[in-house]
Amino acid sequence: MLTGGPEVRDADRPTLLAVSGGADSSALALALAGKPGVAAIGHVVHDMRAAERSQADRLLVERLGQVVGLPVVVEEVHIGRGNAEAGARRARYAALARLAQGAGCRYVAAAHQAEDVLETMLANLVRGAGPRGLRGPAPRRKLEGGVTLVRPMLRVTRAQAEAICRAARWRWAHDDTNDDPGGADAPLRAALRARVLPVLEELRPGAAERAARAAEAMSEAVHVVEGVVGGAWEAMAEERGGAIELDRQAFGACPAAVREGLLRRTIRRLGDAGHDRLSASTARSLLVWVDAGRGARVVAGVRFELDGTVLWAAGA
Q1: Half-sphere CA count of 301, side-chain side, radius 13 A
Q2: 125: buried, middle or exposed (CB in 10 Å: 19+, 13-18, 0-12)?
Q3: Residue 164 CB: number of other CB atoms within 10 A?
Q4: Fewer beta carbons within 10 Å, N or C terminal of the chain?
Q5: For residue range 45-76, what is the model confidence (pLDDT) as tens digits?
Q6: What is this structure's pTM?
């Protein structure tokens, strides 16, 4: 259903399964191999782990491909300096998009599951995210080259994924980075996974599954707001020679969530690549500045100016 629904022919939705070798992605391959449209397994090797561990994972995935009868395509990527987690994520998705294109696939299926949803929601919550961040991983989103990422396991728990592997008598790879006990320098997601999610599950069994349902509801709410933002944009925004002008009176009459959406859309159109993930706190401070009605401000590579009845924006 995530790749077009019953009205789309199987031949029109060839899919690459993203498999790391862990329980979740192994379960994805075991469950979907042989289904119409599933064409290959994709595996990305990065240099954030010891070479022997990465090689072992690669060999395991290749063996899984033999077991389920799917070809395995592999790409190696180098993670540069900066935020290693974010860099690895970007490099992995870019590599998967290239692998999909090379395999003739329009879709990449990833094995993010219910605990990943809860983990993402909690991480974004403590960062002060707005509704977009609290909806968890999107069921589908665009990658490079016209490839679409889909996540068919968002309501499946890790325990259920492991049960699929055990039923198939498949021994998955164990990622010891998930065992991080925390500490001041531990990545936030690893600490949530190791120290917070187990406590939540103990206090409220089924917490991850309920979080996945809540994320779906939040995603629907965000979709509604974005539809209103689109209509408001068409009504009040004018693009003139690389600049965007918004009618200040009409802008001020919109609910805060719609005004924030209009500012985000302006930045996506004019700002540097990557600024579509403007933090909620930055967006809110920009709204406060607009309401104050004075001067100019540069945010995320965009210069905003208040000029009489117009909110003006252009690349800085």
Answers
A1: 14
A2: exposed
A3: 19
A4: N
A5: 987 777 888 899 999 999 999 999 999 999 99
A6: 0.82
- pLDDT tens digits along 15-28: 999 999 999 999 99
CA distance 17 to 235: 42
Sheet architecture: strand order including 148-150: 72-77, 38-46, 15-18, 107-109, 148-150, 140-142
Q: Tell me which residue has tokens 């033999």.
A: 66
The total of other beta-carbon atoms located within 10 Å of residue 134's CB is 19
Cα dihedral sign, 154-159-162-166 = negative
The answer to whether 251 and 262 are in contact (CB under 8 A) is yes
The strand pairing partners of 148, in sequence order, are: 107, 142
CB atoms within 10 A of CB 19: 31
**Which residues are bridge partners to 40 per DSSP?**
16
Does residue 151 come out as left (phi exceeding 0), alpha (psi in the -120 to 50 range) or beta? Answer: beta
Token digits of residue 210: 């309920």
> What is the structure's pLDDT at 186?
55
Residue 246 CB contacts under 8 Å (≥ 6 apart), including other chains: 236, 237, 262, 266, 310, 311, 312, 313
